Amino acid sequence: MSVIGNSVREDVGAAEVRDDMKRRAIALGILALAMLSGACKKKGTTLSLLVWEGYADPSFVRPFEEAHHCKIVASYMGSSDELVAKLRGGSASNYDVISPSSDVATSIVRAGLAAPLDLSKFPSYNQLSPKLRNSPLVKLNGKIYGVPFVWGPNPLLYDTTAFTQPPDSWNILWEPKYKGKISLWDELSSVYMAAQVLGYDKPDPYQIYNLTDGQLEAVKKKLIELKPNIRKYWTTGGELTNLFQNHEIIAAMGWPLMTNQLRKLNFPIGETIPKENTTGWIDHLMITAASQQKELAGQFLEYMIEAQTQKKVTDVTGYSPANPQSTTLMTEGEKKNLHMDDPDAYMQRIYFWQDVPRRPKYNEIWNEVKAAQ
Question: How far apart are the two ends of the chain, measured CA to CA in Å?
């Protein structure tokens, strides 16, 4: 009987040991699953951008994703007004990083839509062009709300097969022989350009950003006169590139991005700044005040202004970099194409966008132009 009793006790004890091992295995499994879940969650962090075309190309975005175990999702805007409308329309929390141009950067800061930056977390900041870094555009009450990223003009683009020599004036857009062969940007830059043609940039070039009612009416009349020549008002870079590729147009106001894209496609595209000069922009990167990923967003901003990244950005966009140290990675030809051999001289040809005090009135005028028959 004692033998049987001992056997029973041994069986019971063994069962308890097995049960205990099972419980531990289950507990370890749950812990491992929790850790794996946490790792996946961390790896699945998403950084959302609302930026201009070309600012989230895989060639420079993917290395950041891999290094930070995150996913970058970009939405593209077609105008500064579209950016502001989305931020003020309740969509601000959908985005972590934005790239406002110099015409709306100040108003975004004043509206409290951007987060102030801790510059101690941006070691590359002091490498940026002093001229761009010292601009008051993104400064308020002693705080800085953005980092300069890239800058450039809104040049006149043209099909070199249609012109024996580069067009030297914006006035060529109005020539009757180009009926249906011209495209303008569906943006206030077209208003600024017409103001230049009418001479409203003299003696003060920046008067074009604060025109009187009478001047705006004259600009509207001038732009309506251009309508027979307009094939289409373009809204995205890809749209303008296609218009040239399909030989629907021969000239347009555009961006260096399109020049870069078309040259890579071996399209005979030319780019020039006419004698009236042109408008242009200084784009900044900002973190939205509503972002839930401010730390990661800050790391992204630092990465984007580093010299190596800036070189990659210029390769894609054809825009001039805010970090002059990126030129050490360029050939002499690349420096010249980006006007980094003498950036100050090139900047003299560009009337950089500024805050437009009467922006609603400008938009009203532009909408009337588009609606005119």
Answer: 111
Reported as a pLDDT band with limits 50, 70 and 90, residue 24 is low
Residues 103 and 182 in one domain: no
Q: How far apart are CA 234 and CA 95, in angstroms?
A: 25
Whether residue 137 is found in the same domain as residue 232 = no
Structure tokens at 78: 């077609």
Question: Does residue 344 fall inside a structural domain?
Answer: no
Q: How many domains does the chain have?
A: 3
| Preceding omega of 203 cis (within 30 degrees of 0) | yes
Say yes or no: 227 and 157 in one domain.
Answer: yes
Q: Is residue 345 part of a domain?
A: no
How many other C-beta atoms are found inside a 10 Å radius of the C-beta of residue 225? 12
Q: Is 218 helix (H, G, I), strand (E, B) or coil?
A: helix
pLDDT of residue 164 exceeding 60, the answer is: yes
Query: Where are the alpha helices (H) located in 104-253, listed in sequence order?
Result: 105-110, 130-133, 189-197, 213-226, 237-245
What's the pLDDT score for residue 18?
53
| 244-270 per-residue burial string, b: 16 or more CB within 10 A, e: under 16 | beeeebbbbbbbbbbbbbbeeeebebb
Query: String of b and e for 101-124 (b: at least 16 CB within 10 Å)?
Result: bbbbbbbbbeeebbbbbeeeebeb
3-state secondary structure of 288: strand
Query: 177 — phi, psi (to 5°)?
Result: -70, -10
Over residues 39-83, the pLDDT tens digits come to: 333 557 999 999 999 999 999 999 999 999 999 999 999 999 999
Please tell me whether residues 128 and 180 are part of one structural domain: no
Return the closest-CA partner of residue 252 out of 265, 239, 261, 264.
239
Query: Which pLDDT score, from 0 to 100, does residue 22 have?
Result: 52
Provide the token pair at 329.
């990675």
What are the φ and ψ backbone dihedral angles of 71, each rounded to 5 degrees? -125, 130
Closest-CA residue to 248 (of 271, 264, 267): 267
